[in-house]
Amino acid sequence: MATISVAEAAKRLGVSRQRVVAMIQSGSLPAVKVGRSYVIDAAAVSRHRGAVSRPLSPRMAAALLRLAAHEKPGVSASEVSRLRGRLARLHDAADPVGLVRGWLPGRARRLEMSAAAADLQTIAADPRLMLAGVSDPRAGMQSSRLVEGYVHEADAEGLFGEHFVVQAPSRSEANVIVHVADPVPPLSPLLVAADLADYREGREERQAATVLNRWISDSDIIRPRPRATGGR
User: Residue ranges of the domains in the chain?
Assistant: First the structure.
């Protein structure tokens, strides 16, 4: 059996090392503990990677997010049925965060930007920016040092120019995360979880899982519908 390290598994799966360890501890990824770390079956990693769905098209990603926000999806009945089927997979998925991240990269363009720390509060209050991700209270990660949200494609240039928001020199220097979309998707726990998943960091992924699990437990959107009975 060919084996790989936690670091290599994280690289192949596109997740953090902490997420790989969590998958091992949950039993969804076979591994053997050696000393303080693990060795992982390379074939199991390949199977797990193949189980993550292909990204949805921008149109279907937008429809899924509208459905999750209790809005009309704007697609055909058969497409709605397929979207509900995807959401139903979250109930029993070994890695629901990975599924959501795999489905929704087409929802917006994610930009890592930078602005003066003194301007962050003003940026967060700008009506053109819909706060999401770490800036949404459901994430439990609100910070005065980082702002995240969505802006319409038509408003992005004006928002950036007015608040002197520029591309961050490095990821570590980004303090404004902007998702540029047309149209801006409605806010929902699914959207917040997708935003957190994009960080690919342990803390954010744990919070994404918390947001998702709470939504899965409470949502009537992905709860199986009772079958219609015959008769009048």
Answer: 3-51, 58-105+190-218, 109-184
